[in-house]
Amino acid sequence: MLCGKELILATKPFAKEIRSKSWMHVITTILFLALSLTATIMIPFLPVRLFFSVLTGLLLVRMFIIYHDHQHHSILTHSKLADFIMTAFGVFILSPTSIWKRSHDHHHNNNSKLFSASIGSYPIATKKKFEEMSNRQKFEYLAIRHPLTIALGYFSMFIFGMCIASFVSNPRKHYDSLIALIIHVSVSVLLFILLGWQIWFFLFFLPFIIAFAMGAYLFYAQHNFPGVTFSDNNEWAYEKAAMESSSYMVMNPVMAWLTGNIGYHHIHHLNSKIPFYRLPEVMDKFKELQNCKRTSLRIKEIVACLRLKIWDQEKKKMVGLRDIR
Question: Is the pTM of this model over 0.90?
């Protein structure tokens, strides 16, 4: 059985894109998005309009995963056209390249470290540290991890976190965050004025609410689930963090397609150069990767993930507030 760096090296042959397949996924996803947006405008029947609005939100999740892979340089490298498309999409989705690349790279290099800046990750506190916090610090910590904050990821994670906070912290480096926010608000206002509140709601607001809520939860649950492991910095290892601190989120084929196979998150963290469309292939190839920690989008498991708040170093597991009290 392969493990550690040997397992990472064994996956290297799969860290090669099939250029035609990469473009096929980009083009078809953009076309599906365009068709879904058009149907939302053109079909006045409310249930149908609602269906396509929700579908648009989920297609935005898929396109975001494609953008995410491009930022990892796992697909469409050295393509000026792809760079243009993905840079534009990053601005459109309120995740401009400067802040997304920096924060996400930090996340990969520090995932599941107990004592590291929570850049690109949800903060994690040990039981001891939590008990030493002031009431205000406890409130802020729990507010960030609250289900409502995750559900409203559009405002909390993207408008505030990706755009406002990043620009305020370093205006020169993250000027594209301000550009993204200005464009986003301008388009929103124009759609509301020109097309009315109902089209604005189904064409713009609801798809973004769904996409960002889904994205915020996926990012949360893939590293905050029953059985997850966190390590002291001196005990941390990259391959260990991938296999023990990143979940395999079991999904049906439709949801796996809509989420760009991001459920195979342990494999993605093991080798982020593997294109998203090759992750199932890698899972099938290596039995070592099939013996992983799992979760799903079932209500029971969503609730179980959301209840986890604090790392208990004595019990070596994440616990909820009831366990602390």
Answer: yes
CB neighbour list of residue 254: distance below 8 Å, 6 or more residues apart: none
The 10 Å CB-count burial string (b at 16+, else e) for 2-12 is eeeeebbebbe
Of residues 154 and 325, more confidence is placed in 154
Question: In the numeric block, which tokens belong to residue 134?
Answer: 């002031």
**Strand, coil or helix: 262:** coil
HSE-up (13 A, CA, CB side) for residue 151: 5
Q: What percent of the chain has pLDDT over 90?
A: 90
Phi, psi of 250 (to 5 degrees): -70, 125
Instruction: Please list the residues that pair with 94 across neighbouring strands.
Output: none
What's the rounded Cα separation, in Å, for the pair 198 and 202?
Answer: 6
What is the CB-side half-sphere exposure of residue 89 using CA atoms within 13 A? 23
Cβ contact 313:232 at 8 Å: no
Alpha-carbon distance of 4 to 189, in angstroms, equals: 51
> Mind listing the pLDDT tens digit for each residue in 18-33?
999 999 999 999 999 9
CB 204 within 8 A of CB 188: yes
Average pLDDT of the chain to the nearest whole number: 95
The alpha-carbon radius of gyration of the chain (Å, integer) is: 20
The phi, psi pair for 173, rounded to 5°, reads -80, -35
Query: Would you tell me how many other CB atoms lie within 10 Å of the CB of residue 131?
Result: 11
Q: Which H or E run contains 292?
A: none
pLDDT tens-digit series, residues 139-154: 999 999 999 999 999 9
Q: Where are the domains of the chain?
A: 4-11+19-324
Instruction: Of 107-121, 134-148, 194-208, give the lowest mean pLDDT range.
Output: 107-121
